[in-house]
Write a structure and sequence with these properties.
With 121 residues, the protein is mainly α. Helices cover 74% and strands 0% of the residues. The chain has one domain: Orthogonal Bundle (434 Repressor (Amino-terminal Domain)).
């Protein structure tokens, strides 16, 4: 794994933890990993539900969630997907873009990054 990928994972994890703390404060109680996972699964509606360890790995920065999962996690946490994935700098340029448009943009950027990475080999 490259340093850039580790940095991206780390900052996404940091923002996720900030959002969990804020959600806990809004609700007046601590949100457990089990409850967070249940909420993500309820909103995601996937055939195979995620397990707690998957969500835990996202929150601790061990792995990056796929873009569709990032969107669901952001909704559960009450933050914008662009902020969760990239922070404030990216979010400012997308203020008036709908969530699906944002996800398409994120996918396009990821594809471009992967193509560049392949070309550099």
């Amino acid at each position: 794994m490259s340093e850039t990928s580790d940095a991206v994972k780390s900052t996404l994890a940091q923002r996720a933890v900030e959002a969990i703390v804020a959600l806990s404060q809004r609700e007046g109680r601590e949100i457990t990993m089990e409850e967070l996972t249940d909420r993500v699964n309820d909103l995601g509606g996937w055939k195979k539900p995620l397990d707690r360890s998957t969500v835990f790995r996202w929150i601790t920065g061990k792995v990056l969630p796929p873009l569709d999962r990032t969107e669901v996690l952001a909704k559960v946490l009450g933050v914008r997907p662009g902020w969760l994935a990239f922070g404030d700098m990216i979010e400012v340029s997308w203020i008036n873009v709908d969530t699906q448009g944002m996800i398409r943009e994120l996918r396009g950027r990821r594809q471009a990054h992967l193509q560049k990475k392949r070309a550099d080999r």
